[in-house]
Every structure is written in structure tokens, then in C-alpha cells.
Amino acid sequence: MRKNRMALALAMAFPLLAAGQEAPSKTLGVVTITGDQPTSLPTQIPATMEGITREQIDQTINATDSEDALKYFPSLLVRKRYTGDYNHAILSSRASGTGNSARSAVYADGILLSNYLGNGVGGLSFPPRWGLVTPEEIARVDVMYGPFSAAYPGNSVGAVVEYTTRMPEKFEAHARASYSVQPFELYNTDRTFHAHELAAGAGNKAGDWAWWFNVNRTDSESQPLTFATRLVRQGAAPNAQAPTLAPAVTGAVLDRNNLNDPWFVLGTQTQFHTRQDHLKAKVSYDITPAVRAAYTVGVWQNRSSGNSDSYLRDAGGQPVFSGPVSIDGLNFPALGAGDFPLTEERLTHFMHGLSVKSHTQGLFDWELAGSLYDYDKDIKRQNGAGNTLPGARTGGAGTIADGSGTGWNTLALKGTWRPGGLKGPHIVEAGVQQDSYKLDYVTRNALGSWLDGAPGTLVSDVGGRTRLRSVWAQDAWSFAPAWKTVLGGRFEHWQAYDGRTRTAALATNQPSRSENAFSPKAALSWQFQKETVIKAALGRAVRFPTVQELYGATNTLNNLFLNDPNLRPERSWTFELSGEKPYGNVLTRLTWFAERTRDAIFSQSVFDPAANQNVSRVQNVGRIDTQGLEFAASGSDVGMQGLDLQGSVTYAHSIIEENAGFIRAPGDTIGKRQPNVPRWRATVQAAYHWNPQLTTSIAARYSGNQFRTLNNEDVNGTTYQGVSKFFVVDLRVHYQATKTTSLAFGIDNVNNDKYWNFHPYPQRTYTAEVKFDL
């Protein structure tokens, strides 16, 4: 059991393994999956790949969402703020921060989950659609670091993540129930927040047909995520011109913002209560013994309420939500709806995927695949200016933002040619692909109540389309007994059209644009010794602007996003050099990586105290250079029978070398660190299998100091809108009570570290779950 688990656990973390007590051997740095369902990643490319299986997730990770499977991968971080975080859980990688969701690619069974309608957050948010995969349906997760495969667009510059979900070989059924509780203390908030999940799935294979379905219900409360604030310097003492003191209030918390300026925290914002339903169904049919057709449909629904609360109290002890106030003898401008907003969201999204592929493993195989992601319903209601709490809870003025009709679709044809058969020196792959994206986002004033009124007069109408057409090819060539190379390239033709930015007073239609780009790829592996492999990979990636970055100007009570229809594509060259060698039962890897990105696309958010909102402006940054080292090690039965260890340490030196733009003054970003990329990060996990039924694990995650702004002026990370270092310890106990029933208990953030990434991350959280598997 443990030997097989070791093979599964490490096959993707390191090249070809031979599990067992003898030291594993390696062959040319090519990944081989031993057992379980295979990944669709291009395993013939000798670049860094890591993976995890369903069994490992069950036994060692407190996984309430699919992105939790990535929690302990080297150099990866998902900015998940709470269970069911649907609008800010962005993936970062070695040289890409948590504001750059368009610099990674996330797929499930080959269907695109990454949301390339936009990048990051700011007005609108564009994380991957994690909710279309649930933890209980995952068979394995694999990651390829860097843009080294010609099969993927330039968005793969950071990493490519592939979720492989279950497809049964016989009848099986599953059910899971979990419950989480988070006691939360921050500023003047002292509450406990809860989340629970119910899930069920079943599948079967009979003859040429196989099917699988999964349903999931999540009901989750987040901690407060944003806060109402006033800079102390915004207050004014009574004087001869304004001798009147505003109504005095108590309860404000004196703190310092990310620029280290004193400010008062007045209350909480965006404390979400989200109720999500997920349904996934898959069916496959073997048309012939060598050709299989498969169809996937997924439905995700979300009903979310965003709440606010005030810390301020008047002389009678009643909460204060509006009007001018006096704090510590200083008069402050009137509080408004932007300080204590309310939101109601109703979302229904559909995902479809259809593929027909051959799997002869002979001279030639082919695949035709298409996918569609549709915002069937995407409505966000919010109280409007002048409509403040507590009255806003029952109605009044507000806005309705409608993104229905937004979405994307993909179509790809791929072929694999083995001119010498399975044992021949060449594996040639080629394909054509089209990816199309459509953004439609209309905001109107609500007629009557913001809670249930019909759409009225226009506030804004933004949208547009992009299309990427690609032709690619690559050849994996074993040109000598100890050598293998992969050479390839990708030609892309990008178009942006139908761009519009309209308000009640002004309508702007943008001209169409198009760009061409060619991205070469190369990788080489050398069997230096029997158990040592050296690998090198080089790839160019061109990341084209998204629709939102080009056309998606939005202005809400809390956020102003300024687009740029003339953005240039960002162009990156990425290189890595790795050495991989086993020491006993521990396999080690040391990787040096480097990336140079020109015209990097960044959305820089700066708080405007006068407008009391965050202002985000998208821009090109001239040149960012990143160099770093990544060390990873993993093994089973390390030192004693039953002990599994894995860990990683990453150092990244990422600096802005050229930039004509600036934040406060010309040149203020030159020589500064890239936002949201820490110098140091590390993970370590130890799992001990006491017997076949009981497994306990302990894990730790560390991330060093980092900045959120391009000029690194945010020197205080341990506050609202700051980005802090963190050290978090997680525990899990998994017990297989019977053949069909398992129990688990876990604690995330045992040490209760209070850390930030603009928003506060979760504090100590307790999770319990029970699973039934037939």
C-alpha cells in the first residue's frame, strides 16, 4: 500500500520512479504516471511537474474547495479567503503574484476554468472557476511550471494546473458531509463564522458506456473582508470658521494603514454569506475500441449576501452608519453608503465540454475538443449613494449590475504522430485552436428598491470581445540513449473588437485591434548518471490583454477601475535548469529559474481618501526580471516505516528594471520589487501512517514580506490593504473507520497567525468531515 502510494505521490513530482525500498531510478526526466487516471498534461516535456493524488488529498489536506489541493505545492499560493471564495481566489506562482490571474492556466479534464475575461480583481474579479470542481470528484491534480509546452497559450507563463476528475471502471457511490468553524477576532469584531458542505456522487461503467455525476451544496460565512476607514489627517478640530462639533461617537479603532499613516477603522464591510450549489455530470461512449466520445456538463449557482456593520456608537449606545461624526475631538466628513455597503448576488453559470479522441497508442492519435462557459445569470444588487444603513436593509435606492451573457468558448483539434511507433525516437504533436471571450456588463439604477426593483436608467455599459487563434507543433525526440529534447513553437493571432464604454452621458466605441506573435519552446534532458537527471527548458510566452483590461471601466461605491484600450501584450522569456537525484527514499530537485517580462500588465490599486474608494488603473510596466532557486524533496517511509515527508523552499528576486510609468513621481518604481512576489516561501508536510486505518499529518506554510504596490510604498503589511508575511501550521487526522466510512478532523492555522493579502486571511479554523464510499 505505502509503496504504491509513494509511486503515485512522487511520479509527477519527479521523473520516472521505481517505487520500493531500493533507490528510485530516473529516465531522461520524463514523467510517468503509475496507476490512477492519467493527466492530460504533456508529460513528455522535461520541465518541472508536480502532482498529487486523491488518496493524498483525503489523508493529509483539509480540503473544503478544489483549490486546497494546491496548498503545499512548491511556489504556489491561492489567495483563498474563506470556504467557497468565488471572486478573489487567485493563483500565484514563482514569478507571478496574486494580482495576476491571467498568468496561469487552470483546466479540469481539459476544459478551461481560468477566467481570461479579465485579470485579478478591481471592480470586477476574475479568478479561475474553482467551484466547477469539488474535492470529492478529484482523481488527481498535476501542475507544469512555466510556458514550456506549445500546446498552451501565453497565459501559461506561470503554471498550468490540470484537475483530472473521476471516471469509474465499475459502480461506485460517494457521500461527504463537512463542517468548519472559525472564531475570529480583529479590531472590534469578535464573532464565530461557520461553513458546512454536503456532497454526493455516483458512477458506473457498463460495456461501452461510462457515467459519473456529483452534486455539492456549500453554505459558508466569511470573516469581514474589508473595512470602513478614515485617515486621522482627514479630521479637523473645531475652529472659528467651523466651531460646531459633530455628534461624538465611540468605538473607532486607531490603527495605521499600509502606508503607515494613522487612520481610524470604523466598521466592517463585505462579510459574505454564500450558498452555492454545484452539479456535474459526465458521460463517455466508446465508439470503437480505439475512439471515445465524452461529454461534461456542469452547473454552478450562487446566492451571496454581502453585509456591513459599524463599530461606532452614539451617546445612547446605538450604532452610527451615516452623517458627520466626531472622533476624539476631530470632525470627519459624513459617512455614506460607500462606508457600509450591502450587496446581493444571484449567479447561475453553465459549463459544457465535448471531446472525441482516439487512443490507439499506435502511429497516430487525434482529438477534437470544444468547451463553453456561460454566465447564464449574473446579477449583483447594491445599495446606492444616500441609501445608508440601517434603512438600506429593507430597500431604497441602489444599482443592479448584470453580467448575464458573458462567457467564453474554446475549440481545438490535436494530433499525435509516432513515426517509429511507441518505441520510436519521435513523438510529434500539433494542433489548431480558437479561444473566444465575451464581456457584457451593464449597470443600471434600480427602480424602487435595490433589493427587488427592476432595472432603470443606465449607469454604465462596458464590454467587448477578444479572440485568439493558434497553430502549434512540438516534437519530443530521443536523439541519443541518454538525451532527449523537445522543440516546438506556437503562432497566435489575437483580435479585440466590439469594445465599448458607455454611461448615461457618454458613449465610446473602441476600434478593433489585432496582433500576431510567435512563441518558440525548447527543452532538453540528460541522463547524467543512473539516478541523476539534468533538465533545461526555455520558452517564450505572449500574454494578450483581456477584455476587462481593454474596455472594462467600472465605478462602484467602493472601487473605480480605469481601463486602457491601447495596452500592449506582455512578452516573457522563461528559463529553468534542474537537477534531480534520489537519496535513499527521498527524491530531491534543485531548480534555477529566470524570467524576463516586457510590457508586463498590472492593475495598480491605490486608495483615494478624498473619494473614499480604491482606484485601480491598468498599465504596462516596461521590464521585470526575476531569478530564483527552488528546492523540493519528497519521500515515503523516510527514516521509519509509515513516515512520508515532502517540502520545498523557494527564493525569488523579482525587480522592476524599466518603467516609463509611475505612481507618485517619475522613476519611483524602478528598482522596486514586483508586487505580491515574496523573496522567500516554503512548505513542509509530514504524514505518519500509524496503521492502514489511521493517518495523521502536520504541515507548515511560510511566505516572506512582500508589497502590493509597484513603488513599494506599502511598508506596513499587517493591516487592512497590506500584504504581510505569514507562518501557518495545519493539522489533520484521517481515520478509515470501516471499509466504506472515513472520518477526519483538521485545524488550519493552528498557531492563529493574523496575516493579510489586502483582506484578512482566515484565523484558526476547525474542520470535521465524514465520508462514505461504496
Model description:
It holds the Pfam family Plug. InterPro entries: Beta-barrel_TonB (IPR000531), Beta-barrel_TonB_sf (IPR036942), Plug_dom (IPR012910), Plug_dom_sf (IPR037066), TonB-dep_rcpt-like (IPR039426). Its main location: membrane. This is TonB-dependent receptor. Helices cover 3% and strands 56% of the residues. Strand 27 (513-529) and strand 28 (532-543) form a beta hairpin. The longest helix is centred in the N-terminal third of the chain and has 10 residues, at 2-11. The protein is built from 3 helices and 41 strands. It is mainly β and 774 residues long. The strands form 6 sheets. It has a 28-stranded mixed beta sheet that branches. A 5-stranded mixed beta sheet has the order 1-8-9-4-5. A two-stranded antiparallel ribbon has the order 2-3. The protein has a single domain, classed as Maltoporin, Chain A.
Question: What brief labels describe this structure?
Answer:
5-stranded mixed beta sheet; 28-stranded mixed beta sheet; disordered N terminus; 3% helix; single chain; Maltoporin, Chain A; 56% strand; 774 residues; ion transport; mainly beta
CATH-derived topology? Maltoporin, Chain A
Briefly, what CATH class? Mainly Beta
Overall geometry comes to globular
- What CATH architecture would you give? Beta Barrel
Unreliable residue runs: 1-26, 32-36
Structural class: mainly beta
Helix count equals 3
Taking Cα atoms only, what radius of gyration do you get, to the nearest Å? Answer: 26 Å
Amino-to-carboxy terminus distance: 19 Å
Strand content: over 45%
**Mean pLDDT across all residues, rounded?**
91
Residue share in helix:
under 10%
Number of domains: 1
**Main β-sheet, in a few words?**
28 strands, mixed
